[in-house]
# Entry
Amino acid sequence: GESVGLHLPTLSVQEGDNSIINCAYSNSASDYFIWYKQESGKGPQFIIDIRSNMDKRQGQRVTVLLNKTVKHLSLQIAATQPGDSAVYFCAETPYNFNKFYFGSGTKLNVKP
Amino acid sequence: GAVVSQHPSRVICKSGTSVKIECRSLDFQATTMFWYRQFPKQSLMLMATSNEGSKATYEQGVEKDKFLINHASLTLSTLTVTSAHPEDSSFYICSARDRLAGVGQQYFGPGTRLTVT
# Structure
């Protein structure tokens, strides 16, 4: 199946700093990408998404960047807070949205 | 917002028994639900896609006779782990796609922790 992977398994940042979480995907036909946040023992929570016809999308304190040339996705969190501590996954799906494939996850630790 | 529930949240069963996990969309209709399993400190692995009124589509390597999926209504899908073994111990998560919402959006349940002794 498709391969979606992450560069960094663990990221530690100081409270108030910006965080950048990266993700690589292998399926050039992927059309839709999503970032999820998962807290321990809970299901994933939607953060932000982006379609393949865009290269940047901003939300509240979060920005997703998509580089289709190198098949790379990143999540930027501004002014990281302790509540942002969690595991973050990227997921991708082809144009028909039939299946979602998840990357391996990055654990974000926010130090007070 | 859209809410997906799972029941039970935790279950412990003996090896050889079967366990049923329910996934419900509480305030929307879901023609498609997805079942994932997640081992500790690992990512979500898609097991199968469940479509209301039809047979589930299983991912390669997932035994359909072991993981029985039934999507009997627009708000309920069930996963039955048959003849469970300790290696089936995992965190099982479902998600549901809102029939009326924009494509791509799926809502996740809180997960079910299965422990097989």
